[in-house]
Amino acid sequence: MINWRNLNWDEIDNTETLWQKFKKQSNLWIIFYIIVIGLVAAISLIQVIYVAVDKAGYFDLQTEIYKKIAESNSNFPTGNISEYVQSDFIRNLTTNSFLTIFLFTLVVFFVISVFKAFKNRNFKYLNGLALMGMWFTAIYNIIVFFINIRNFFGFQGFSDYNVAIMMVVTNVILAVLYLLIIFFPGREVSKLRKMFIYFEGYVLRNRVIEENLKNMKMSGNFQEIFAPFFGANAQGANQTTTSSNTQTSEKPEKSEEYQRLSKLPLSQLHKIAAKLNIYGHEDIEKDELIEKIIQYSKK
């Protein structure tokens, strides 16, 4: 099982190190996941083809089911059973056909993303939409399975119909595969993707902040910390005219520092404040927080 939240991130220098650390484990989970979703798509296709080919058997089965419903419900319009069966056949075949196409689309997009991830040696490239789409499909079909479970096993004499046996067996197998998608390989593959996104989006970014804070304190150049967060033209964007009065020579510098900080989002300011050990920065308004960052950075 992949447990990346307890990793010692100080030992991970870059995405290549992270890739090598989880390469063997991740390969097994990804192969397992592709097999599972491939089986789901293939079995769904088998259901569609079988029902389409054995249309007569499906009609006989559904007719018998509707007759039993009519026997237990005196208000059921028995004269329209053939119409109900025809409508039910078209609806089920259409719905299952669209579901099968959707499943194969998800499989194709995910496999393409796997090739991209291996090419770049970075699992952040795994297709998040494909993972999410397969997860929601699994949830939906598990709910439908348990709603219809009485129909699968409650109809006496279903073993006389090949199409009924096929539907029961394949739906049970699909239910197991969908549970795997939700709780086992699907979950682990999602963890892999989140781990690399977290590393690049949080760990590496914090390292840049820490390094720039150290450089700022050592060099006294306050602007160095903000270079990664502004565009290439940001350094000269807020030039000020220096005063001839030596007593006010620091005011333009402070003004520029304040303006540059004010362009950062509040979440980034809180990260900088945390690195500077500013107590209670979470409750401080943006303007006051900027002043405190300027004050602490010059200590």
From TrEMBL:
Statement: the UniProt record of this protein carries the keyword Membrane: yes
Keywords tagged on the record: Membrane, Transmembrane, Transmembrane helix
Stretches that traverse the bilayer: 28-53, 98-118, 125-149, 161-184
Region (Disordered): 237-256
Comp. bias intervals (Low complexity): 238-249
Name of the protein described by the UniProt record: Rho termination factor N-terminal domain-containing protein
Organism of provenance: Mycoplasmopsis mustelae
